[in-house]
């Protein structure tokens, strides 16, 4: 079992370090201190020495007067003798006057001496290094005056309220506030209690009541009464009923107005329907006229395109003709030259068989030479492009191959490098394009709102609002409600860093938290969301700091926000930073920040200079985003410029890559020639030269006259044919030139204005309706399309005009009937004419009639129905359903409290051999009145499907009657109402004992009547301890480090045997509580193993009390002396 004295215990929660009193009871004219030093200690002394006086002083400091019981260790009569005034004046006895034959109260302090009294307690939290001093000052100035002090500083009576420090005028308060900032002084105990309760992390006022009860409670009695009265908060049943009653009071006020609204809607609906048709026809007519204007332009554009295509074909024919003519002229020139040569050579006549053989050989060799020379030419072109030797011999040919292979390897590496660089550039471009799209979405988002919260969080908030069917304004982000003041803009960057994460937290009113928890749990948000439940309670007990260097003084909270108090509370608790650039001040402050963003939190220091934390476009505070929108647009421009630069770079790299690939191709082609014989044409030239010499020798003796004559005849005939063909081509060229000139002239005459995209789309839609979906290929086909479109357009325009005229006449008749209704309608609704005074029965007033229709349907009728049938629709669902949900929710809350109370009980050994533990249980009561109330409440809650989907009017009337009967009874029978609406009365409470070994229950407790004295006390302290753990927040993760860990137990062992006494001490140790145990000297042996100090109280002459502080070692040394002293003074 854990003990009270482990090291972890010393680090948790607020513990009493010392307690001081001055002029309180019989502690007179001196300052007395009880030094507990955060440890469990013992307060002892003889009866009447002043122990209870000290305990009552602690109660006075911690418990409101209405819940405080003085002198709890004494009987009822003696309790009445004690009070604040008796302690203040120092009453210590009574004497009987023989003269007056009356008794007189003896007192230590008198009005003429202007006495004052001070109570002070100093608490320290070692885990969080927080400290708090509670003090109360009392003095008499015609009446008793009181001041209550809560200070985050370590104070004591001598230095801060002692001789010379206190004055009746109150200057001491000004000095104390000035010397010790954030010290709160008030004359209201309620405000004072709220201040220290918040700091101590107390759950509710029940905690103070429990603190009072731990002092003197010995036996619990009825468990039901204790749990209902001391462990459970009283529900706000009356206020919830009043909310219900307020809605009910406005039920029957607008029935006639609803009937009038419905009659007017019935008459206006056909007007609205006809107006829609009339306006649609009018719109159609305007569209047809607009189409009439643009249709010729569209057809002209199509005709121009067809003519330009025909012209292009003509121009192609012209080019072919010109090419043919050039070819004919070249051929004629060549033939003429040949003819002239043949005439000149007509005389030669010597050709024989040998000459023909030589010619054949020369022809063969010449063909091979030309093939290899062609390959040599290709080779030389590639060699020159690649900077290699052209026309090489065989040695240089192979040298070129070696060099080309090296170049090819180098190009392969360059291509791989460029491809990798292009890939990285394209990846960066894709990322930049993604960022550009994000910025565009962000900018679009900011254009539709005013805050600076990132888009992904706004998206989630919108989903939640849609799910709850509420406005997004009901779920603000903290950053939307705060901004840096204009005069503090120098600190904007630093404050944004400090508050950035907090600013992105969503604030959720308590009423929506369950639905939001469910939605968040069931859906993937695709981002991180932190949200706070904001409870409806007062936060006015804390005041914002006034120092000009405080970060909180540089922040402005959005006016009129319902979250103002909560925000101030959070800012004060978490972000009370000093803004300073003085490093001495920075180093001495617990929380500080510099303008450059260096942040200090006690021993933790941080500076975040990442771009995402320093750029203004990432700021999130404020409810106006104009500046952020400007910065985002600048960022978008930079992003677009970066994209353009990257695209240009990629284009350049692609160009370079294409150039290298070209060289790569040339090298590959160059290396395809690896045999020198394929380009060695010189060998063939030498052979041809030999044959040529032989041929020349033979030609000198041959006769070729006859051959030349034949060739001359053929050439002449060819010239005649070519001249005829030339004449034909010239005629065709003339025809084509004339036709092209005609088309150019017609194209230039066509008027083709530019059409916008919308007009062009309208034309295409119109033609599609006419089944003209194929593009005309010829002018004749286009002319047919134009004729069909013109005829259809004219027909549509005439039809639209006819319908518009008929509808206008019909609407005018309906308007007249509405403005001047029949007598029956006028008699039924005398105020009808008041609604139509400004209306005229003419179509130009249709907007006013439509506005009246929409106002009746969407505003006035709804308002009247809400007044008449509040519980039958909106009010019913919102009021009675919410009331039922609230009242059943109270039962859920009670069960949650019981579960919280059971958590510490599960870990406490209640009985040993066998070991057991206690668990609280609750069961529904068997009470007829409560059962009847539940049945009536269920009957008043609507079946949403039956009422809204089936529109069952009879069911609606029945439902209304059920609601009326329930509320009338609740209103008329107050006693019944208070009983049945206090959900604590719905449950009976008890405790069940379980075996630790197998968690098997075996014994149930409804009260302590059947237990022995020691068992009653053990049971009492067990249940009371669980209540303390719950109300003090000891077992809650978010409260335990700042929870109060101190209680006082008076006469702790008076009715306990040693075993039960040890149980009490060990139980409190398991709860990690610091005890001030008050017990007589004869019970000290029980407490000694658990305490660290002893405070011995003595009383001299039955009027002057003193207290001595001893360590346990000192106490043991002087134990007999104290016992003797106590015996002497008793």
TrEMBL record:
Coiled-coil residues: 299-345, 401-449, 712-739
Keywords: Coiled coil
Statement: the UniProt record of this protein carries the keyword Hydrolase: no
Pfam assignment, any one: AAA_29
Stated name of the protein: AAA family ATPase
Organism name: Chitinophaga silvatica
């Amino acid at each position: 079992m854990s003990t009270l004295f482990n090291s972890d215990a010393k680090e948790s929660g607020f513990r009493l370090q010392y307690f001081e009193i001055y002029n309180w009871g019989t502690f007179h004219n001196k300052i007395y201190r009880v030094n507990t030093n955060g440890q469990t200690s013992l307060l002892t002394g003889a009866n009447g020495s002043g122990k209870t006086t000290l305990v009552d002083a602690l109660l006075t400091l911690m418990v409101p007067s209405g819940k405080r019981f003085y002198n709890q260790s004494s009987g009822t009569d003696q309790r009445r003798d004690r009070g604040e005034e008796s302690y203040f004046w120092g009453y210590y006895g009574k004497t009987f006057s023989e003269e007056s034959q009356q008794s007189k109260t003896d007192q230590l302090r008198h009005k003429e001496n202007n006495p004052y009294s001070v109570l002070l307690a100093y608490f320290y939290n070692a885990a969080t290094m927080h400290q708090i001093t509670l003090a109360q000052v009392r003095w008499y100035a015609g009446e008793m005056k009181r001041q209550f002090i809560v200070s985050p500083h370590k104070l004591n009576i001598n230095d801060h309220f002692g001789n010379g420090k206190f004055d009746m005028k109150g200057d001491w308060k000004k000095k104390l506030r000035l010397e010790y900032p954030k010290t709160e002084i008030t004359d209201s105990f309620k405000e004072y209690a709220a201040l220290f309760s918040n700091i101590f992390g107390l759950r509710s006022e029940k905690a103070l009541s429990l603190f009072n009860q731990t002092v003197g409670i010995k036996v619990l009695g009825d468990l039901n009464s204790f749990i209902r009265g001391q462990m459970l908060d009283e529900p706000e049943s009356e206020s919830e009923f009043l909310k219900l009653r307020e809605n009910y009071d406005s039920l029957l006020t607008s029935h006639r107005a609803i009937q009038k609204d419905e009659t007017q809607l019935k008459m206006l609906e056909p007007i609205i329907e006809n107006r829609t048709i009339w306006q649609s026809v009018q719109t159609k007519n305007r569209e047809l006229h607009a189409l009439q204007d643009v249709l010729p332009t569209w057809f002209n554009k199509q005709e121009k395109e067809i003519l330009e295509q025909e012209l292009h074909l003509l121009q192609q024919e012209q080019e072919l003709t010109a090419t043919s003519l050039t070819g004919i002229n070249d051929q004629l020139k060549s033939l003429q030259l040949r003819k002239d040569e043949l005439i000149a050579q007509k005389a030669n006549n010597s050709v024989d068989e040998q000459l023909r053989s030589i010619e054949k050989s020369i022809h063969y060799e010449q063909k091979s030479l030309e093939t290899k020379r062609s390959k040599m030419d290709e080779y030389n072109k590639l060699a020159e492009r690649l900077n290699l030797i052209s026309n090489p011999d065989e040695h240089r040919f192979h040298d070129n191959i070696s060099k080309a292979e090296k170049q090819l390897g180098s190009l392969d590496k360059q291509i791989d490098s460029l491809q990798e660089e292009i890939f990285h550039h394209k990846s960066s471009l894709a990322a930049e394009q993604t960022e550009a799209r994000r910025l565009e979405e962000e900018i679009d988002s900011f254009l539709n709102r005013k805050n600076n919260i990132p888009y992904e969080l706004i998206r989630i908030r919108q989903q939640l609002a849609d799910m709850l069917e509420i406005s997004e304004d009901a779920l603000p982000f903290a950053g939307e409600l705060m901004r840096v003041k204009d005069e503090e803009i120098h600190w904007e960057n630093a404050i944004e860093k400090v508050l950035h994460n907090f600013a992105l937290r969503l604030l959720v009113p308590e009423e929506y938290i369950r639905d939001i928890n469910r939605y968040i749990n069931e859906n993937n948000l695709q981002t991180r969301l932190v949200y706070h439940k904001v409870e409806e309670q007062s936060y006015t007990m804390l005041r914002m700091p006034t120092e000009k260097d405080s970060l909180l003084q540089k922040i402005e909270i959005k006016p009129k926000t319902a979250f103002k108090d909560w925000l101030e509370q959070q800012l004060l608790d978490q972000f009370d930073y000093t803004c300073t650039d003085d490093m001495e001040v920075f180093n001495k402050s617990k929380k500080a920040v510099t303008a450059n963003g260096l942040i200090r939190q006690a021993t933790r220091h941080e500076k975040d200079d990442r771009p995402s934390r320093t750029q203004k476009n990432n700021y999130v505070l404020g409810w106006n985003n104009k500046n952020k929108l400007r910065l985002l647009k600048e960022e978008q421009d930079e992003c677009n410029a970066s994209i353009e630069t990257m695209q240009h770079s990629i284009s350049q790299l692609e160009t370079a890559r294409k150039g290298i690939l070209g060289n790569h191709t040339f090298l590959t082609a160059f290396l395809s020639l690896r045999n020198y014989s394929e380009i060695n044409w010189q060998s063939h030239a030498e052979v041809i030269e030999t044959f040529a010499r032989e041929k020349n020798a033979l030609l000198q003796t041959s006769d070729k006259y006859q051959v030349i004559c034949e060739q001359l005849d053929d050439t002449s005939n060819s010239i005649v044919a070519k001249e005829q063909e030339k004449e034909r081509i010239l005629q065709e060229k003339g025809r084509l030139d004339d036709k092209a000139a005609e088309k150019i002239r017609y194209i230039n005459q066509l008027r083709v204005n530019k059409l916008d995209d919308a007009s062009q789309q309208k034309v295409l839609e119109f033609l599609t309706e006419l089944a003209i979906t194929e593009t005309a290929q010829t002018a004749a086909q286009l002319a047919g399309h134009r004729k069909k479109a013109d005829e259809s357009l004219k027909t549509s325009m005439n039809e639209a005009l006819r319908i518009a005229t008929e509808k206008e006449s019909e609407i005018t008749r309906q308007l007249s009937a509405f403005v001047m209704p029949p007598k029956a309608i006028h008699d039924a609704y005398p105020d009808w004419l008041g609604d139509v005074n400004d209306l005229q029965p003419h179509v130009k007033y249709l907007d006013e009639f439509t506005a009246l229709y929409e106002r009746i349907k969407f505003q006035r009728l709804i308002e009247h129905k809400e007044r008449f049938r509040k519980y039958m629709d909106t009010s019913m669902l919102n009021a009675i359903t919410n009331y039922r949900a609230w009242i059943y929710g109270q039962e859920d809350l009670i069960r949650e409290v019981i579960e919280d109370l059971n958590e510490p009980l599960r870990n406490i050994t209640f009985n040993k051999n066998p070991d057991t533990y206690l668990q609280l249980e609750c069961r529904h009561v068997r009470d007829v009145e409560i059962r009847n109330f539940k049945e009536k409440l269920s009957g008043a809650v609507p079946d949403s499907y039956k009422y809204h989907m089936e529109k069952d009017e009879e069911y609606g009337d029945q439902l209304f009657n059920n609601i009326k009967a329930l509320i009338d009874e609740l209103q008329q029978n107050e006693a019944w109402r208070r009983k049945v609406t206090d959900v604590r009365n719905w449950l009976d409470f008890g405790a069940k004992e379980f075996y630790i070994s197998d968690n098997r229950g075996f014994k149930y407790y409804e009260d302590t009547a059947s237990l022995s004295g020691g068992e009653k006390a053990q049971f009492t302290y067990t249940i009371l301890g669980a209540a303390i753990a719950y109300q003090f927040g000891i077992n809650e993760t978010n409260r335990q480090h700042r929870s109060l860990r101190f209680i006082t137990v008076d006469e702790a062992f008076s009715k306990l045997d040693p075993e039960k006494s040890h149980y009490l001490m060990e139980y409190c140790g398991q709860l990690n509580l610091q005890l001030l145990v008050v017990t007589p000297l004869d019970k000290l042996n029980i407490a000694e193993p658990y305490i660290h100090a002893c405070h011995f109280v003595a009383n001299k002459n039955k009027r002057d009390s003193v207290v001595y502080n001893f360590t346990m070692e000192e106490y043991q040394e002087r134990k007999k002396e104290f016992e003797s002293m106590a015996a002497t003074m008793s």
